[in-house]
Every structure is written in C-alpha cells, then in structure tokens.
DNA sequence: CCCTTTTCACCTAGGTGGTAAGAT
DNA sequence: ATCTTACCACCTAGGTGAAAAGGG
C-alpha cells in the first residue's frame, strides 16, 4: 500500500537546465524487531470486534529478521530538469510499501514491526560520456530523522487511524466528523 | 472527449540512445462544412427518443468556419529515448478533442462537421547547443490518409456507435451482446 | 429540422479502513 | 495472545452513450 503520510520535499539550488533523478530508499534504524506492550489492546464489548489502541511505545521483541538488499523508488517524473523539480513541492505519493518478499511490482519491501529511516537521493544526470567516473560526486543524500517509522500490517494506534481517516481523501467513507479536527 | 479509435503507431529506425518528442496535430482536409443528408434520421416510434442512423455519406453544406491556428498534442511520455519509443506500440489514447474555442485544458480544438487529417510528428532532440539552426532537419512528419475523419458532437452513424460500445471498455454499460461481434 | 449542450447512470481503475478468518 | 491475510463496502477520479433540453 501507499506510504502515509506522503514524503514531500521542496528543493532549492539545482541547476535549472540540468537533468536530475529523484529517488527514495529505506534503511533499517536498528537491528531489532518490535512488539506491542501486552494488554493495551482492549476489546470493546459491544459492538464486538472493535479495538481501542492506546499504545504510544514499542517493546523490543528480539533481533531483526533478515532482509534482502533494499529496493529503490524513483520518482515517476524522473528524469526532469532542475527547473521542473524546483517549481513546486515534490511529492512521493505513488511510493508503495509491501511486506511481500516475492513482490514483483517493484514496491519497497519492508519487514513489519521493524523501524525504518526513509532516505531521499538527488542524482545529477551527468551529460559527459564518461559520466560513470563521476558517479560519486553526482549525487547527494538527505536524511530527515523525524520521518522514521515502524512498519506495520495494521494500525497500532487509534490516533493514527483517525489522522489518516481525517486527511486521506480515499478514506472519506469512514469520516464521522469534520476533517478540520 | 478522447479521440476514438485511438491513433497508434509502431516505430522503427530511431537512434535507441537519442531523445525524441512525439506529437500530433490536425489539419483541415478541405475548406468545406458538411451536413447529414435530409430524412435519414428516422425516429423510431416506440420507445420514443430513439434514433436509427443510416447515413454513410456527407453533403457539402458550404464553406468552412474560420479556425484559429491548430494546437499540438505532445505524447505525455515525451521526451524519451528511441529505445523506449520503439519497444512497443505508441498509443495516443490521452489525446482529447473539443469544439470549445475557449478551451483552456490544452485539448485539440476542431470544428464540428468539418473533415480533418491527423498528422504524426517525430522530433529529434538535438543535443548540440546551436540546435535551433538544425530544426528543419530534426523532425519528420507522417500522414496516414486512412485516418481522416469528420468531427461531430454526436454520432451520425449507428454502426460507429455500436463499434465503440463493443470495443471501448468505458462503454461496457451499453453492451447487450458479445464484444467479439 | 439539424445540430449542440447538459446531465446522468453506468462503467474502469484504483486507494481506504473495517472485519473476520488464519497463522504462529 | 499478537500479528497477518483476504475480502469487502465505500470512496476518488475520470471515460462512456443515452436522453432530454436548448439553439438557430
């Protein structure tokens, strides 16, 4: 599924006439697997099947699962001129996450219940024909620590569910109050 | 609305590594306005409001309406490498036609009841910085006379309606028989 | 009368969380 | 227990011809 909230950046300082590729990848924050604290999922007696989530912290549940080398997501507008990238906020809303190790849709594969750090890379498309030699100096990586998250297969915190229902247009069917709240 | 059937081409002979822009435009076939032969639209008594169209020819109805300079439709994948364009059929299915002279969606503006010839242009993106000087030799235009058509605001021939209902997935709701027919 | 415009039910295509069943 | 999967009703977004209304 799509990552939510969407990673968005405003870019400055590119050469307006040069081509750039924009991409993202995800690196493990640590070598741990996490789990919910016990007893914090309370089944509400009626209607049955409803859960209330309170947990705001995670417990370490052991060592991380093994992972294959991480995939990369190219922004679908790549390559494009610096002027194009800079003239408005760049949004990675098409980026999709999966826990399916056999995924063949090119989605980003993550382990559920593991912590990840999104990374943003800008690659300058070097027009010189021996450009491979300059690969090292032709890209720059940006890491925003505030974008770290724990991957899950289901929401673990009711406030996150409500945030997304309130702010994602595709979840409008579940709104029962003003999205401004 | 979208042009139907869609203009599609298979391309050979490009430089796989070079960039090309693909585009289409529409030129008047003649300086005439057309109309339907009288009496060929038969109202079927019941159910009311149904028409049966038989007309397979057009009558000249006078001189063409004035037209502003024609717009151009760039294939949305432009620019792309020759290898990309050649590896599969290129489809102009996003191309849209309108009769609204004030259109600000960038659609192709045509006069209804006039005849048009679609044209297909391939533009080589010249990497030389004085490329403007070579503009004349850097493009090639292809005209397929069998793609000529009369623009309309409503179907004038029941067999065209049926053809489209049978072959356009968005008209599936009007099918009452096998699309193979 | 011929043609154009507007509206609408009905599609395609795909992104939501809920729910119940399954897995461990 | 906790976590995962599969399915579903309900959305967004947009492409259809039919039908009725409008225009000259």
Description:
Two copies of one chain form a homodimer. Chain A has two helices and 14 strands. In chain A, the strands form five sheets. In chain A, strands 2, 7, 8, 12, 13 and 14 form a six-stranded antiparallel β-sheet that branches. In chain A, strands 1-9 form a two-stranded antiparallel sheet. A two-stranded antiparallel ribbon of chain A has the order 3-6. In chain A, strand 4 (41-43) and strand 5 (51-53) form a beta hairpin. Chain A starts with 7 loop residues before the first strand and ends in a 14-residue tail after the last helix. Chain A has 181 residues and is mainly β. The first copy, chain A, has a single domain (8-41, 54-171), classed as Transcription factor, T-box (Immunoglobulin-like), CATH 2.60.40.820. Chain A has helices at 82-86, 158-167, and strands at residues 8-9, 19-28, 32-35, 41-43, 51-53, 59-63, 73-74, 80-81, 90-91, 97-98, 108-109, 115-124, 139-143, 149-150. Residues 42-50 of chain A have low confidence and may be disordered. In chain A, 8% of the residues lie in helices and 30% in strands. Chain A binds a DNA duplex (24 and 24 nucleotides) through residues 1-2, 35-36, 38, 41, 49-50, 99, 112-113, 152-155, 161, 164-165, 168-174.
